[in-house]
């Protein structure tokens, strides 16, 4: 690596420095736009005691679900989970700690974390179990709760295209949490389908500027579909 | 007769207006998309980051990068836009969505809603539901009026953990269309062939019944 060139040559190099008990923020919604090869590398490394921040936790044999059998996840902060049997078993037995967070609050926690905002007030979750133990405050007669931001030791992100400087373009709804995740990691690792030379991406069309990206790798993707729904004709 | 799922969707669709941005929850709400009146333009918001959701794709159009909030593969309507999750919930929380339709386990006379968690059972999470109910002014909850065993889901106080507090004003059940105001349920319409007495019997929270309760028209 030299200058602004973020490209690394192996997944091992991409996830170097990830240690037990770290916090990892992951992009993706369901199985859409997940950094599937970076997750596979975490499985291969066998890193344990991780706190995962992700909207979901994959399915039994794909996505973040692959980190469950070897008990690599200590805690997950997510909005919707339980699409897999092993997750359910670990949650019910208390082996896996789950902090359910409203989806918009989760996105904003990442965004705030990456933007240097330590916490924010939101009406979401007021008067619900989510508000327990949190500061409440009234603005113009409406009730809000204080939600702390989230940052991670690592952020793992999937984008569609990047230039070597780490400027990112996402594709369709595979964007989801990825741009926020990218901003909130001390070390942000991005895998993409295609890397081009600086200057080849139109600056007006870049979704995430390269300043947020530390390491970049080109991979090949299975892109599994969770709910395959089609119409006739 | 209690309304079918399709009739529930049809009745909700009557609340649509031309130019509405609408978020439809999973289940019955999703069916509303099938009953948008002809000549009316409505844009569907999917909270995973799509405004202008189209129909399901053909085999040829199938794209793993294009799904809805229920993780189903979809297409984009003409004029659609794509954005990240923070932007999506800025729209929702900021009150920019004109109509939100979602399901529930229970609602009560104070506009409280419980829809995401039954203690002791597997807890899957609230997804975007807490943000949707906190952010939208115009929400329609679709649900069955009572359980299979005849236990009312329209209560004086929700018994399950809340998804949102004081945020529901309209409920469409398989028996009735109800408005919530001033700490009471107000009966607006009844399902065809369903009597006011039957609705009253299955409504645990205080129900205000006007002299004339019209049947829903389809």
Report on this model:
The complex is a heterodimer of chains A (233) and B (218). Chain A has helices at 11-14, 36-45, 85-92, 103-115, 178-183; strands at 23-26, 50-53, 73-78, 97-100, 119-122, 136-139, 142-148, 152-158, 161-163, 168-169, 185-192, 194-196, 215-218. The radius of gyration of chain A is 18 Å and the shape is globular. Helices cover 18% and strands 26% of the residues of chain A. In chain A, the strands form three sheets. In chain A, strands 4-3-2-1-8-11-13 form a seven-stranded parallel β-sheet. With 233 residues, chain A is α/β, with parallel strands linked by helices. Chain B has 218 residues and is α/β, with parallel strands linked by helices. Chain B is 16% helix and 26% strand. The longest helix of chain B is centred in the first third of the chain and has 9 residues, at 5-13. Classes of the chains: A alpha/beta (233), B alpha/beta (218). Chains A and B meet through helix 3, helix 4 and helix 5 of A and helix 3 and helix 4 of B.
